[in-house]
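Archive record:
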Amino acid sequence: MDILQRFGQYLDRPGFPWKKLIIGFQIFQYVFEGFLSLRQYKILQQPKPPKTLEGEIKQETFDKSQAYGRAKAQFGFVSGLYSQLQNFATIYYDVLPMLWDLTGIWLYRYSPKGFTGEIAHTLIFFFTYNLITTTINLPVSYYSTFVLEAKFGFNKSTVTLWVTDLFKGQALGIALGAPLLSAFLAIIQKTGNSFFYYLFLFGIAVQLFAITIYPIAILPLFNKLSPLEEGALKTGVEGLAKRLEFPLNSLFVIDGSKRSAHSNAYFYGLPWKKHIVIYDTLIEKSETEEVVAVLSHELGHWSLSHTTKLFGIAQIHMFYIFALFSAFINNRSLYQSFGFHKQFPIIIGFILFSEALAPMDTVVKLLMNILSRKFEFEADEFAVRLGYSTELAKSLIKLQIQNLSTMDADWMYASYHFSHPILPERLGALGWSSREKKADLRTADDDKSSVTTGREL
């Protein structure tokens, strides 16, 4: 603790150019990521698929995949610039202190008696700021859903459903965010310099609560879960779970098709009581053995303790963030650099600290992607050992086609952005070979799929 306090005092230097450093890094990151995207865009202009896929993907499918990839890349260039301009304007024009002062006036004039103090002020500030940023980004969200995705036949949502989900999300954010944010601030206010220990324990409790409450109270607000019907698929999945001693409690099908052609398969629950959820689109587009093969990969993550390891790493990362925040929370030079000269709100300190921590988080993201790709290869190998090599390979190819996913990638772009190996790498590791094209683009009515457990297949 003394080390953190001394470190905090060392960083708190009057006149230190925090704003210039943070803006400088944001510009550098934007330029660097743009450079990587340009490298990837060249890959998306290639006329032929990688050699590994030449026997699997027809030229028509490949061309459409490349066109979809270029469309997403072009959209990414524009939306990235839009986001960058927002961030720059917020920092350069001191939007945060102006909004803090404005919400303070609202609190003073209109709040009910007893609703006062920093926590009340923070709640009004936070939800106002969230509402503004959500509104500003509505055009981006709308274009992505109803123009880009619809152009390639993937969007199944309606404007009414999109708006309804938006309002539900905002309401849910207020209902859950208000008590969580209040508790976050109260812990810091009442526990002194050692607050990060208590925040860490609080963070773990919140995660465990979320694991329990999400499928029961939150997921049903957006989707319907139904028990998987009796049949070959249910028998196959239950047999796989029994073989691996996976503590399966229930099997559900989710109506993901009402919003998107994306498919999903995941498991959730406490260590002794797990549930598997399969999207209706995945069942519709895959053979029974292919779905079981997909789940053999996903349960491989569980059997190899990947989920446990990632959870543990996440806790270490959370502790390190809270511990470092304790060195920044009283950094007056940081506040003053962003226009806060008389008031030093905790939430503002955390927002500014997060901006200052961005370079380190970029490194963490890179390392986590490297680890994640390693885990994906291991889960594939696990499925092979279970005897699903052929079925998994076929499923990966079919999902790639249904998704129009990127068939190839620039190595620098993939290293920085991808948490999963590209298809040619995975097929090579599976030892897959084919003498004829076994996969083809489906009709215009076919849907796009992807498989995840909170992680893509």
Remarks:
- Residues 59-92 form the longest helix (34 residues).
